[in-house]
């Protein structure tokens, strides 16, 4: 446990009527589906980190928006109410350009999922609402 938030990025990547998701291969939320992403490295710009994480986790190259479309907190607490994890996440919207989807890095699985099937998956907290909101705005 650390007493400082960690800064990360995620990517909402669209292709036709689908959104690119990864099934997490490690904690937190092991086995849950989420947007591809990860931590920003020291000295790395957010957008560069988002492109890197997208490629590492899915083998996909995409055209990312110039700026994040949303920045949000992901805070988990234990039963005593103490903070266990605190991430600040910058989410970028993107449009698929190339690459055959293949899970890599810490992703157990990766796939483009039709928007209508999002509700069938176990998603990390807030992900379904975030996808629906931003998918329809793009």
TrEMBL record:
Residue intervals of the Nudix hydrolase domain: 4-135
Keywords: Hydrolase
Domain of life from the UniProt record: Bacteria
UniProt cross-references to PROSITE patterns, sorted A to Z: NUDIX
GO molecular function: hydrolase activity
One Pfam family here: NUDIX
Coiled-coil spans in chain: none
Protein name per UniProt: NUDIX hydrolase
UniProt organism field: Stappia albiluteola
């Amino acid at each position: 446990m650390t007493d400082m938030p960690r800064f990360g990025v995620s990517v909402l990547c669209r292709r036709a009527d689908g959104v690119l998701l990864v099934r997490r291969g490690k904690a937190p939320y092991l086995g849950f589906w989420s947007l591809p992403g990860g931590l920003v490295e020291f000295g790395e710009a957010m957008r560069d980190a988002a492109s890197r994480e997208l490629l590492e986790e899915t083998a996909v190259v995409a055209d990312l928006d110039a700026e994040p479309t949303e920045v949000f907190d992901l805070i988990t607490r234990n039963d005593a109410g103490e903070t266990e994890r605190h991430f600040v996440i910058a989410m970028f919207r993107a449009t698929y350009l190339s690459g055959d989807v293949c899970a890599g890095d810490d992703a157990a699985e990766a796939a483009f999922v039709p928007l209508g099937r999002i509700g069938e998956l176990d998603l990390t907290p807030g992900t379904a609402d975030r996808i629906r909101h931003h998918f329809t705005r793009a």
